[in-house]
What does this fold into?
Amino acid sequence: MNNLIEIKNLNKSYPLHNSGKIKIIENLSFIVKQKSNVSIIGPSGSGKSTLLNIIGLLDSDYTGSYFLKDLEVKRLEKSKLNSLRGVSIGFVHQFFHLIPELTVLENVMLPGLINKKSYQDSYKDSLELLKIFELEERLNFKPVKLSGGEQQRVAISRSLVNNPDLLLADEMTGNLDENTAEEIFNFFLKYINKNKTSLIYVTHNKKFSKMAEEQYYLKDKSLFKINE
It folds into this structure.
């Protein structure tokens, strides 16, 4: 099976207010196969979100090598990088980041339209996802009219509308109550496994972490596999 992601000797630091730098990630290497799902767990402040931002092409201020779909990320022009991020990567966050002025359907359609998908195709693909995630009765609702679980299902649908090669989820159930979180996560993972979408998710929930095919623990600035 081909690798979707290959990272070698990744280093990431942040500048301190006075002087010097603090290392967040050091000599980290990481391989993700296509059509696999991976969990990352670790204490707060260990660098989990920082790593996801690098993988998601949101942060290029690092050293080391990163190949996504056999493309060396550091060598890509900005336009190619933006295109790759927009088409190949979907994001789900703890907070839903829905646009309040738009309806549920419009929120889900937006990434497709931004990436020059036709209105008809964006509409069709969005409607299909919203039906799968049991939101067909909420198409014309604004986000404020939805429950937290419904808003997260809209956000998940939006992240999938461009059929990305890779989905990144950062504490996606962290803003939900326990019962809703479990319901959403199980539904989400079932969809991911059925459609063979590559997934990397960060979670503090050990139960959710153990549901991944491959599980990693981020500590001491690097990743350690915990289910070998």
User: Anything to note?
Assistant: The first helix runs from residue 48 to 55. Helices lie at 48-55, 78-88, 104-114, 119-132, 148-160, 178-195, 206-209. The two ends are 18 Å apart (CA to CA). Strands lie at 3-15, 21-33, 37-41, 63-68, 71-72, 89-93, 166-170, 198-202, 214-219, 222-225.
